[in-house]
């Protein structure tokens, strides 16, 4: 390979907008020929990637995978919903979700993919489309003995919400358990719980909410001797709104999600869940 100077790399980067390492490799592969290096970058859809680096990727698409033992949510972000619903973009999201299901969620960017890496494939699509594209959130559950379910909510021709839920203490072959798992996944997509149960709420969040409720109650002019009881009652409403097992089931608000799952009998429970929505932390 040709020796490449930092000055040559900087010049190529200025001409093409590609990343520093991509420019260095292009020059090395092209024997130091500047025009050939530009063509090398264009052929791989790498030109202009650096110029897009400062743009906000607030759109994107989500795909989910649910097998007997593995469930995945994968998010790929971009700048516009027009790109997010495009065939190439959605196809890459789907392929990457399957990749994570098969190979795991560690160091996804550098996993081997299509003769290169996942990161390189994303960069190439970014160059082809002309928008900033990034790998977003990746969630992977392994469940050798539980029941997994995944749900993808589609809007404007692409997945915008992805949900995973795992039930434990149930027979994997029980049709009823699988139906409940799916109902819970649909509920999570709709109701956006923040935590599984009250025990999972950080103590600082509880105290912060208690302080707010106490201030509100005092402003309402409630008697001081009743303050604690009133605040605790309101705090129960906070848990009911934010904890999955305490939430009224969306299909039957008279029943909580926790009670719905407990109705399967035995040690049935929700072990964990995940919810990812495009452009939402």
What fraction of the residues are assigned to beta strands by DSSP?
A: 15-25%
Derived from helix and strand composition plus strand pairing, the structural class reads alpha+beta
What is the CATH H-level superfamily of the largest domain? Elongation factor Ts, dimerisation domain
Strand segment count:
10
Instruction: State the end-to-end distance.
Output: 45 Å
Shape: elongated
Average pLDDT over all residues:
91
Taken in chain order, the helices and strands follow as HHHEEHHEEHEEEHHHEEHE
- Helicity level, as a percent range? 40-55%
Q: State the CATH architecture of the largest domain.
A: 2-Layer Sandwich
CATH topology of the largest domain: Tetrahydropterin Synthase, Chain A
Number of domains: 3
Spans of at least 5 consecutive residues whose pLDDT stays below 50 are none
CATH class of the largest domain: Alpha Beta
Q: What's the helix count?
A: 10
Radius of gyration over C-alpha positions, nearest whole angstrom: 25 Å
The biggest sheet amounts to:
3 strands, antiparallel
Strand order of the largest sheet: 1-2-5
Features:
281 residues, alpha+beta, Helicase, Ruva Protein, domain 3, Tetrahydropterin Synthase, Chain A, GTP Cyclohydrolase I, Chain A, domain 1, three-stranded antiparallel beta sheet, 10 helices, 10 strands, 43% helix, elongated
């Amino acid at each position: 390979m040709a020796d490449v100077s930092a000055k040559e790399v900087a010049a190529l980067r200025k001409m093409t907008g590609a990343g520093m390492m991509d420019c260095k490799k292009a020059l090395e592969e092209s024997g130091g020929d500047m025009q050939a290096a530009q063509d090398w970058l264009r052929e791989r859809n790498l030109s202009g990637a650096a110029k897009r680096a400062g743009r906000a990727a607030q759109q994107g698409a989500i795909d989910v995978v649910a097998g007997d033992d593995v469930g995945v949510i994968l998010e790929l972000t971009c700048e516009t919903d027009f790109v997010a619903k495009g065939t190439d973009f959605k196809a890459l999201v789907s392929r990457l979700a399957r990749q994570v299901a098969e190979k795991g969620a560690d160091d996804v960017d550098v996993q081997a993919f299509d003769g290169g890496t996942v990161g390189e494939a994303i960069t190439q699509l970014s160059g082809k489309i002309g928008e900033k594209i990034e790998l977003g959130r990746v969630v992977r559950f392994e469940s050798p003995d539980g029941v997994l379910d995944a749900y993808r909510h589609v809007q404007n021709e692409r997945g915008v919400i992805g949900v995973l839920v795992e039930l434990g203490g149930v027979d994997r072959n029980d049709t009823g358990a699988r139906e409940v798992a799916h109902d819970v996944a649909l509920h999570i997509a709709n109701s956006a719980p923040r935590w599984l149960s009250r025990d999972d709420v950080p103590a600082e969040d509880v105290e912060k909410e208690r302080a707010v409720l106490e201030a509100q109650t005092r402003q309402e002019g409630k008697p001081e001797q009743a303050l604690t009881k009133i605040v605790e009652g309101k705090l129960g409403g906070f848990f009911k709104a934010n904890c999955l097992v305490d939430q009224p089931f969306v299909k039957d608000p008279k029943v909580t999600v926790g009670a719905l799952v407990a109705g399967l009998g035995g040690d049935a429970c929700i072990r964990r869940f995940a919810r990812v929505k495009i452009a939402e932390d």
